[in-house]
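Usage

Read records sequentially. Each one opens with the input sequence:
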Amino acid sequence: MDGASLITAGVALFTICNPIGTIPVFLSVTEGKSVAQQRRIAVMTGVGVFTVLAVSLLLGAFILQFFGIGVPALKIAGFLFVATIAWAMMTKSGAILPTTNAGSPAIVPLAMPVVAGPGAIALVIAFAKENPALLDYAWGLVIVAISAVATAVIFFFAPYLARLLGPAGMQIFQKLFGLILLAICVEQILTAMPKIWPGLAG
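and closes with the structure output:
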């Protein structure tokens, strides 16, 4: 792959992962935890994102083939779930997701499906299919690592952003990015549907 293609792939992956837009989700599921705990969760989320996307890059196509699942079906199912999170971001003033689980939310739901969701997984699987050379796989892992580190850094500083914006500012931030996230979900679902039902393509 040339440099321009790698940059395009990296930007596309970061955009679909959307760690900036999911800051309200991170703050919601870590509500009540200390800053130190939030930082640990941020780092572990980055590790989880790298693990999920690296496995998807290396083995995703085989896993989907084993279970007989197509990438369009994965995208539709996953984005429907993420759409429920986006809807909650726009309509709820409290916690976006249930937080009664005593375990860490770093892997579920933050790493997957909030950040390393169906769109990101589908993207890295498509990258692997289109670029089967060993060097391309290595560059793919680099792109995945950059997105994971960026996610960890953004979530690491999320509590500072919350204090900077204040409760009213965070409400506006949450609802704005909830709308953007929902629009992304709708767009991705509409894009995937004609691949399952060709008649919808007109």
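Summary fields computed downstream for this record:
- The radius of gyration is 17 Å.
- The chain has a mean pLDDT of 86.
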